[in-house]
Amino acid sequence: MKIAVIGLGNMGAPMAANLAAAGHEVTGFDTAAPMPDGVMAAASAAEAAKGAEVVMTMLPNGAILKSVASEVIPAMSPGAVLLDCSTVDVASAREVAAEAEAAGIGALDAPVSGGVGGAAAGTLTFMVGGSDAAFATAKPLFEIMGQKAVHCGPAGNGQAAKICNNMILGVTMIATCEAFALADKLGLDRQAMFDVVSTSSGYSWSMNAYCPAPGVGPTSPADNGYKPGFAADLMLKDLRLSQQAAEDVDADTPMGAAAAALYARFVEQEDGAGRDFSAMLPRFESRNREG
Ligand code: NAD
Q: 10 in ligand 1 pocket by Cβ < 6 Å?
């Protein structure tokens, strides 16, 4: 397949490299990043998109996605598919899809989970919104770049699934970290805490698969000085997207709002920037009860 990839940063570069390694003809464009192995450089996003059957974007936010989409959609052939894998707000994803569909182009919002490691290993999970036909076109690419692609419904539903999942993740990580810090102060050994909670009703992915306490449970960023992993900055981005979406549809999300406020403080006023999102545990550990 002829594929264009716009945005070859931490995620886009290994995803594009995997498509090229699988034998697809991949052309890339990025305003700053170099091209990975096997990817031909284009002079602009529109040039990369010309003649491509799938144009994949992996960009920082909705505003940049909208500007790139309005550049590439007129250059794309009718019937081609615009596959956005960035994490952006639901409203931008739906606007871009409407613009593409009006031009006879298929559109998918397909944000991922799995991070840079999953992108390199080709084991991402894709959460996909868009038509059945566009999903069918992109399916072989999902199989190369990932281990699972869930079709979540029409345009925007991939982003909706991503931010709802990550809102649960942010909230449960905070709850897990504050519970560990409370257990410490109550004199409860961390290994005992893990052994009980991981097999009791408090279990979660944050506790069982990504335990924030060093030396306890499976190996996680806590065992590597809280080097990400999944950076607190990216968790903050996703929590803010969840709150923006909740605002738009008038949904009551008090725990999501609290998690967004706490990660904002951690990243912007404390030492959370660039640390893994599970570094909430040393944060709580070093604090007393607030008034
Ligand atoms: P990144 O900043 O490393 O990459 C973004 C790339 O887009 C950069 O190389 C930048 O130069 C390029 N770019 C910006 N504006 C452009 C334009 N107008 N035209 C062409 N290229 C342009 O970010 P990343 O970590 O690769 O993340 C990409 C997306 O994936 C984000 O939406 C992020 O939220 C999401 N995501 C990231 C992770 C992760 O662990 N890094 C995990 C899941 C989802």
A: yes
pTM > 0.70: yes or no: yes
- Give the model confidence (pLDDT) of 207-240 as tens digits: 999 999 999 999 999 999 999 999 999 999 999 9
- Each residue's pLDDT tens digit, 74-111: 999 999 999 999 999 999 999 999 999 999 999 999 99
Residue environment code for 244-268, b if the CB has 16+ CB neighbours within 10 A, otherwise e: bbbeeeeeebeebbebbebbeebbe
One of 50, 139, 162, 227 is an active-site residue; which one? 162
Is there an atom of ligand 1 within 6 Å of 33 CB? Answer: yes
Answer yes or no: is the C-beta of 112 below 6 A from any ligand 1 atom: yes
Assess whether the C-beta atom of 11 lies below 6 angstroms from ligand 1. yes
- Catalytic site residue 162? yes
Counting atoms of ligand 1 from 1, which one is nearest the CA of 113? 43
Across 31-56, b (16+ Cβ under 10 Å) vs e yields eeeebbebbeebeebbebbbebbbbb
Looking at ligand 1, which atom is closest to the CA of residue 12? Answer: 26
